[in-house]
Amino acid sequence: MKQMCLNDVVAEIVGDVVAGQAINKRQAAVERWDDIDADGRFLAGIDGVVARIDARARALRVKADQSAGQAQPELPFQLPAAVAMDLDGTTLIATRKLSRAEFARAIEIRRQQIAHDSAALREWRNALRQADRIWADHPDWSFGDCLNAISAATRQPAACPEVPA
After folding, report:
1. What is the mean pLDDT of each run of 10 residues along the chain (165 residues)?
2. Which SS3 state, helix, strand or coil, does residue 78 take?
3. Is this model's pTM higher than 0.70 or not?
């Protein structure tokens, strides 16, 4: 088989997902690795190919079917053309091919991702509040400098037992 540029290989893999084939992104990247030209392999690596598949699949949106000769009607919602069916986002399935149970699973996965993202966001905001106390006095410090100051301020000296008089 003739070698292709990286973007063309990624487009074919995402095309398979949109056409209804469930894929493991990493496995697809490995299986199509030899189809990618030397420049593409050098620039991307397997993780790069996986990231490109993910980005392209998430960028595509579900569209209403076109009837012959008519303008495409608008849908009352916007969903990606392919969704991850596991928390780490390894397996993609075309949204149009989902069963009701798979659709519900995709919603649950998204809910869990949002919960994890919300928890991470709370941590980031908490870290900013803590660092802002330091940055108020030292605006030129890096976050790492603030972390060191926070750590030093929260260290408790070892408790010394009182000696009765």
Report:
1. 88 88 90 91 80 78 58 75 81 90 93 94 96 96 93 68 46
2. coil
3. no
CB distance 95 to 79 below 8 Å: yes
Q: Which residues contact 43 (CB under 8 A, 6 or more apart)?
A: 6
Query: In Å, how far from its chain's centre is CA 116?
Result: 12
**CB of 94 closer than 8 Å to CB of 103:** no
Helix/strand/coil for 7: helix
Tokens 């870290």 appear where? 127
Going by C-alpha positions, the residue among 64, 62, 54 that lies closest to residue 84 is 54
Q: 3-class DSSP state for residue 80?
A: strand
